């Protein structure tokens, strides 16, 4: 089994690299700036799920996925011309929202840090003598 796993991984990587180029070559204006984030081919190589992502909105990504699924036959033929595999898998494109979710979480963290900085600045301004605990050094 480890040999099969490494073969599948290698083929997934090849599919990802070649599909990335082929998608750019489509030059369809309905396909935004798409990145192929993952390829998961079945062990028998009869089918493959291709995850794609973009920095556009969800509607643009959904449209790109729809167009790519419509063009999957052409992409499959082009893959067959470039790769020497017994079977060229049927391609199924899926939206990968992981990048967008990561950006959303990063924005939440950024906003929380900014709020913490504002609270710290307000506390520092509230301390008339600049001391940290409100105690003076006059003791």
Instruction: State the CATH superfamily name of the largest domain.
Output: K homology (KH) domain
Helix and strand sequence = HEEHHEH
**Outline, from the CA principal axes?**
elongated
* CATH class assignment of the largest domain: Alpha Beta
Q: Would you give the CATH topology of the largest domain?
A: GMP Synthetase, Chain A, domain 3
Number of helices: 4
The overall pLDDT, averaged over residues, is 85
Structural class: alpha+beta
Number of structural units classed as domains: 2
In percent terms, what proportion of residues is strand? 5-15%
Poorly predicted sequence stretches spanning 5 or more consecutive residues:
none
Residue share in helix:
55-70%
Descriptive notes:
The chain is α+β, with helices and mostly antiparallel strands. The protein folds into two domains: 2-96, K homology (KH) domain (GMP Synthetase, Chain A, domain 3), CATH 3.30.300.20; 97-131. Helix content is 56%, strand content 14%. The chain has four helices and three strands, in the order αββααβα. The chain has a three-stranded mixed β-sheet with strand order 1-2-3, with helices on both faces. α1 (2-26) packs across α3. The mean pLDDT is 85.
